[in-house]
# Entry
Amino acid sequence: MKKLNILHLGIGNVGREVIRQITQQKKAVRDSLGVSLDYQGEFTSKNTPEEINNAIQNAPLPFVLIDTTASEKTLPFLKLALKRGGFVVLANKKPLSGKQKDFDDLHKLGGKRLLYECTVGAGLPVIQTLKNLIITGDEILEIQGCFSGTLGFLFSQIDEGMSFSQTVLEAKEKGFTEPDPRDDLSGMDVARKALILARILGRKVELDDIQLESLYPEKLQKLNVEDFLKQLNTLDASYKEKQEKAQQENKVLRFVAQVTPEACTVGLQAVDAASEIGSLRGPDNLIVFKTKRYSQNPLVVKGPGAGIVVTAAGVFADVLAAAKML
Amino acid sequence: MKKLNILHLGIGNVGREVIRQITQQKKAVRDSLGVSLDYQGEFTSKNTPEEINNAIQNAPLPFVLIDTTASEKTLPFLKLALKRGGFVVLANKKPLSGKQKDFDDLHKLGGKRLLYECTVGAGLPVIQTLKNLIITGDEILEIQGCFSGTLGFLFSQIDEGMSFSQTVLEAKEKGFTEPDPRDDLSGMDVARKALILARILGRKVELDDIQLESLYPEKLQKLNVEDFLKQLNTLDASYKEKQEKAQQENKVLRFVAQVTPEACTVGLQAVDAASEIGSLRGPDNLIVFKTKRYSQNPLVVKGPGAGIVVTAAGVFADVLAAAKML
# Structure
């Protein structure tokens, strides 16, 4: 019986669910893959860097280091784990959407031992699908995606005539947004996902290079949350105008990430209502791969791209991909 | 540098394209995975079983046996390859959609070394997605799919008011159907795909157990192709009636495979025009996974599910999955 030791950084909602799923499926994994998944350590922000470093330094091979934090500070741990010959599984987007050099270093150190399916679309098959297209020799013409369930919800409501401010407030009330809705409305989270996809395409690009169009003007950035929410209705007229103009052309507004071998843009677009992206409703994520092989009809993956349970399952699937390599 | 030796059964259109893609990407694979993909033998129906057996018996490990035939007779070769510790990659559906015992034997012998992404949806990520859902502990409630580009084309035309006979004849003329269109219209190919999915769900089920509704009546089976095509228009009134009835209810006709833990049906259904399946157009394939985790909004994969180049790329991706396990 082979054994895969697990070290785990970040035991929040997703982290706990990963542990729950792995525990529940431990026997099934043993039976089907002949691998025993054994937790060796769980770490939170309460642990010192020394403790974490020591644990990684002394972890018996083969091991996998899971990162379900949202921290920029895990990079040295990830590098150490890869240097030692361990696997790394990331739900954390930060290490791959920071500096290009860090992205490159992680890939050089890790190769196939670096797994991060969950960083785009949670449990949906996005990263592996893209990597398979590339390595089998397909040529990526364009990737289009809607990677924010929150913004998907907003613009589905706006389709139906609700005002921008009303729908943001409703989304916040329902818990669909971050505590500060600007964290969603800035588009930064989507930009990080687009950046990861662009880099997989082989582009050398930094976060600042992405043409990112925020959904609120700069001047509202300084306000506290409460004042920001009060000012939201000053944006309603502009969004109403955009929505009506789109509607006249049989289009709808969607917050779209667009990645090509030449460019990377993230922002609001008026897209044909009948297109893949235009027909997207509510909080679903969508990714459309247009390639040389999938040119006339693209390859499309759609479904919930966020949420504790499906994100955890995506992390778990990467752990299993590691287990298969033993 | 690790080496993965390749034996390959069935060098037709797809087989040749697999060889072309692997040859073209050989260097990229070596650079990114550190594995050299080396062809050791190509076999067609001109080779005797003894020749093939000998080649498998003497193949140096690690090796992968690719099956891009459409033959029922490759089973002993596949079993021998797995027994020897080799990998097996199937585009051929027959070995997995024959007797349940053979499906079980192949899986017992092969485990993770048995790969067959291409048997459903060609290069689309279907099988691996389903297996990941299951092993991470999700519960599959229902799989719905349109797995025939040919039948997809037919019913898109019928949506637009074309007669059944007219659209079959047009599809045949365009080369979208098999030489004998009954090979498509019987639904047998779709049934084999549904069977494979049902078996992955753990069901013990034979091809005969599937409720398969052919698109033409039994009595037309005896005719030669020419006479069959002449008789096609006797079916027009019945399809017209079905289409109009569906339209009145805001539905469209689709040839649907439906797999649940309890049942497996393949046949014509009137589905909501606005549903995932109802909004499918033309020759695309579609698969909708409704699971405990993806319940309200399913996980959907869509795109061309047939064709030489994308099928070959799917085979190649499985070969790469094998290479990663070295």
Remarks:
- The interface with chain A takes residues 21, 24-25, 28-29, 32-34, 111-112, 123-125, 128-129, 132-133, 135-138, 279, 282-284, 293-294, 297-304, 309-310, 313, 316-317, 320, 324-325 of chain B (CB under 8 Å).
- Chain B has two domains: 2-123+309-324, 140-304.
- Chain B has a mean pLDDT of 95.
